[in-house]
Specification:
- The chain folds into 3 domains: about 1-190, Ribonuclease H-like superfamily/Ribonuclease H (Nucleotidyltransferase, domain 5, 2-Layer Sandwich), CATH 3.30.420; about 200-290, Orthogonal Bundle (DNA polymerase, domain 1), CATH 1.10.150; about 295-360, no CATH class.
- It has 18 helices and 6 strands.
- It has helices at about 10-20, 60-70, 80-90, 100-110, 115-125, 145-155, 160-170, 175-190, 210-230, 235, 240-245, 255-260, 270-280, 285-290, 300-320, 320-325, 330-335, 345-355; strands at about 1-5, 25-30, 40-45, 50-55, 75-80, 100.
- It has a 6-stranded mixed beta sheet, sandwiched between helices.
- α1 (about 10-20) packs parallel to α2 (about 60-70), α4 (about 100-110) runs parallel beside α7 (about 160-170) and α15 crosses α17.
- InterPro entries: 3'-5'_exonuclease_dom (IPR002562), HRDC-like_sf (IPR010997), HRDC_dom (IPR002121), HRDC_dom_sf (IPR044876), RNase_D (IPR006292), RNase_D-like (IPR051086), RNaseH-like_sf (IPR012337), RNaseH_sf (IPR036397).
Amino acid sequence: MSDWIDTPEALRARLQAWGNPEIVALDTEFIRERTYYPQLALVQLAIPGEVLLVDPLAPGVAEALRPLLIDPSIIKLMHSASEDLQALSRGCGVLPSPLFDTQVAAAMGGFGAGLGYQKLVEQMTGVTLEKGETRSDWLRRPLSESQLKYAADDVLYLHAAHTVLAAKLAELGRSAWLQADCERAIRNAGSDADDVHPHLAVRSAQMLDADGQARLCRLLRWRDVEARRSDKPKSWILDNELAVALSRRVPDDIHRFNEFLDRNPKAPRKSRRELFALLSEPLTEAERAIPLNRSGENLDKQRLKAMQEAVAAVALPLELPEGLLCARKHLEALLEGRGWPPALEGWRRDLLEPVLAPLIPA
């Protein structure tokens, strides 16, 4: 049912034998436990009736994959593709395009929000898949028989799901919606830029005053740069809660600063002087101008509720999950005067602006 491919010559020969398929199912296995960037460990490809398990660790294989990945005439069929896109970008140096994401398509087609692959397959084909290798070491060689079967199953049923989903989206007139979302996912995966306001994703930042949040934002921006430079997980560079604690006040003495870090088991051993300098340097006006991470108590709850009800009123007749249409954080951005988030541009804004515009504070 599946073949192991570990030379560029074998891969090119098999892909040439496929001719010019309109759609190729695609998945990856990767490891990201000890690194910032995902380590691509396996690439699965499938056309109906044939699965290739491709070893991107073998010399020349990743390069041999690139023509298929970027071929504009071949749709790449993936499920919940965002992390796989990052792994392929890192491992092969290119992003697959065009893309058809079956998880997004299922949500748009009314089959359920955030469906995992096993649930999708069961719903579309009636087949129940095992979940036994989800935490495997995919970098080891050789892979076990159970790993190989699990990997093959991840692409084996995507074509059947695509047939159902593509027909449903065409019936509903939503094929262009999916295309737009998939194109945005590819753009996002191709952007290696850091979040300019990382403090907004840290819930406990709400406990800090404005200057504290500005210092936290500075620390987290530094952390993002260091994590990418060293290819280490962000939390290994600086833990979120420690960053919040450090941002509460400007340190006045390097020795007391080090004593505080010594009492914290998650404190970094290196970069202490750099952290002290980052926290000690006066804030600029630009740093103080960032949006604040506010608690729900500081929001206009009545207006937020009205906005949520407006989103629900749009989503209900369309049988769309409200979260797919508009997340709460995007409503909060509108409520705080930060403008329309990029995630709402396109078909979402077309649907929502008529009902949300009257509720947005002037």
